[in-house]
Write a structure and sequence with these properties.
It holds the Pfam family Peripla_BP_4. This protein is of the alpha/beta class. Helices cover 45% and strands 18% of the residues. It has a seven-stranded mixed sheet, with helices on both faces.
Length: 347
């Protein structure tokens, strides 16, 4: 009887162990719900205009750079209208962009855009042109004062003494002021020594080429066509200056400086009707701005070693370096970088 009871007790204990094993939950669930991935970063890109070749390049390169990093981009063009740019920026803000990147038409009026974006909790990056009198979060551009210095260095080497014409950009564009500062910083000493005389100095309203053409015509008329050099704020402006010079029978006789390395400008350099341009690798600018905007959207810390005063604050800035280009080095710069092809340049 004692042996039978012990055997029964062992059977009961074994059954309890089996029952316990059947009821035990697995440590890792057999099926686990897939975690939802966060929505992609959305960047707003508010542009002034697409009328000039370089801005079409900026748009396409920036869009590609953003999308290559798995983010989305919404792009608007204000067509040189500050009120329209404010309205379009409001639309981008309402669309829920994470960061707003802006190329301001009017550096002062764009401050309203920054204020509206910040009110919505959206940070703002100034692309190539600096927004004035606003708490801008980041400025990404080329060193515009250096661009002006390169222009003036090149022209003073060609014409160390003589009568100069300066055709600036739009007065509403703060970059035009930085560019002009760079030019006149270089010209100051030869002007003080009486070696150089600036006989015409005017802004080009809205950066419009036809206004630059009018400026060049007026400069020629005011000085009886007696001028020795022209520094123009960009290549489109330089092209119109060259047109006026050609009509006066002076094409190729008076050195003209520009910037942006537009295809027509590079062709003029080959032909000898434009002395130089300033090359700014826009692909680097677009890629850098896109990467920084996405980093800001993700809450990552951006460290910059430069600051630019915009009239209100010292704006954290990333300034890329430009390159002076003339007939001697365009093959090793513009063509080597595939900015333009050899076939395009030497058509």
């Amino acid at each position: 009887m004692g042996k039978a009871m012990r055997h029964l007790a062992w059977l009961l204990l074994f059954g309890m162990i089996l029952a316990g094993c059947e009821e035990k939950e697995p440590v890792v669930p057999v099926h686990k719900e897939k975690e939802e991935s966060p929505s992609p970063v959305k960047i707003g890109f508010s542009m002034d205009t697409l009328e000039e070749e370089r801005w079409v390049r900026d748009r396409d390169l920036f869009k590609q750079a953003v999308e290559d990093q798995g983010a989305e981009v919404l792009i608007t063009e204000a067509r040189g209208d500050d009120a329209l740019q404010v309205l379009q920026a409001e639309t981008l803000i309402a669309e829920g962009v994470d960061v707003l990147v802006i190329v301001p038409y009017n550096a002062e009026a764009a401050a309203a855009i920054v204020q509206k974006a910040h009110k919505a909790g959206i940070q703002v990056v100034s692309y190539d042109r600096l927004v004035r009198n606003a708490d801008i979060d980041l400025y990404v551009s080329f060193d515009n004062e250096r661009v002006g210095e390169l222009q003036a260095d090149a022209i003073t080497e060609l014409v160390p003494k003589g009568k100069y014409v300066y055709i600036g950009g739009a007065e509403t564009d703060y970059n035009a002021h930085l560019l002009k500062k760079g030019v006149f910083d270089v010209l100051k000493e030869p002007i003080d020594r009486g070696e150089i005389q600036v006989v015409y100095d005017e802004w080009t309203d809205n950066w419009l080429p036809e206004n630059a053409y009018d400026n060049m015509k007026k400069a020629l008329e005011a000085n009886g066509q007696d001028i020795d050099a022209v520094i123009a704020a960009n290549d489109a402006t330089a092209g119109m200056a060259e047109k006026a010079l050609e009509e006066a029978g002076l094409a190729g006789k008076i050195p003209v400086a520009g910037q942006d390395a537009e295809l027509n400008a590079v062709r003029r350099i080959v032909q000898g009707t434009q002395a130089m341009t300033v090359y700014k690798p826009i692909n680097i600018l677009a890629e850098e701005a896109a990467a920084l905007a996405i980093s800001i959207a993700r809450g990552e810390y951006i460290d910059t070693d430069k600051k630019i005063n915009n009239g209100k604050i010292e704006v954290p800035s990333v300034l890329l370096q430009p390159t002076a280009v003339n007939k001697a080095n365009l093959d090793t710069t513009i063509i080597a970088d595939h900015f333009h092809t050899r076939e395009e340049v030497y058509e």
